[in-house]
Amino acid sequence: MKPFSKRKPIPQRSPEPGSVRSTGPSRYTRSKSAMAGLARDESGAVAIITGLTIPVLLGFAGLAVEYGQIVGVRAEAQRTADFASHAAAVAYSRSSDLTEMTDAARAVARLNGFRDTEIDVGLDPSVSTASVAAVRATITTPKPLDLPRLVDGDTSVDVVASAVAGGGSGGCLQLIGAEVTMSGGTSVASECKSLPQPDGGGGPVVLLR
Amino acid sequence: MNRHVTRRIRKLLGDTRGSIAVEFALVAPVLMIMLAGVIDVGSAAYARLSLQSRVTTAGEFALMADLDADALAESAMGLLRGRASETAEVVVNNAAKAKWDGSEVTTQSLSGDAMACYCPTRSDGQIEWGSSVGCETSCDTSGDSAGRFVQISATADHVSIFPGYAFIDGDMVRASAVLRLN
Predict the structure, then answer these.
(1) Does chain B have fewer CB atoms within 10 Å around its N or its C terminus?
(2) Phi (first) and psi of residue B93, to 5 degrees
(3) Which stretch of DSSP H or E encloses residue A161?
(4) ipTM above 0.95, yes or no
(5) How far apart are the C-alpha atoms of B88 and B102, rounded to whole Å?
């Protein structure tokens, strides 16, 4: 087998007659012609395009992962905000005490894996309910991002979920051998159920509006 | 014969036609793997969100339903339970438990009292019920008021194309919630 000796030499343009560089190719012109040849060379173009494209595509895939994780965290935060605001509204309608309201919401948030500092509880006067004030619970939890960690350290986005609960339907009152006099626009309805009592007693139940 | 083959190979070596097809064949597997990864992550996110949504639905039902402990556990489990390979558990105030083990729902009564109040705490993702306390008292450790709670947890299978990928560990997604009854 013969070696590949039949390959044609690359034609080199001879310098124009009368040119100042007619004494022979200088280092500058040689590197210039090599650059020009490289610019015209189309072989390996797909490799370069792929090399440029894959980081971008990986970035898209990374964004999809981040988004999926954030949506998952948000679902958890929203559910916890729902439960916490409900617990807080029940605590407030029972006690009319802001500290008990906050404690109840925080306890629920803690049991669901959130920290005390991540939940904000307060009365929301913009939401009107039939009787007591509505309670708004807002959970703001930081979600560390994975993509920026590859570049320059920790970045996180705050995932926010908010819920409002109010004791709009009034409270039930169970009478056990007692008499109650109501006044001042209080009405009685029969929507409440009788709860079993530990001692077996249990009288009529009225709903206070 | 030998010279004939050599000449044909040499001719092929100089032929640049179809080079894009060859280069695409080299690049395509990389792109396919990335596509598989995106599909994997997408289906994992779907599995996780649908499980989260079931847990939320069961929890909101428990919040609103006016049932005794055993009936509440069983009814909430009706909303929560999933396919054969999945598991789910509802514990109502440490008194009643409903469990889905992948084939049937079992209910059992626990040691606690459905009408009593508790100060549950969370450690390492597990809920410790502790002992029951009076309903109008405040808890020793936290100072919160004691209450009646429902614990809901569920797992669902998700078979990853790439195991241990992204946010899935052990081909399984989990969701849990604790809520306070009235």
Answers:
(1) N
(2) 50, 40
(3) strand A156-165
(4) no
(5) 8
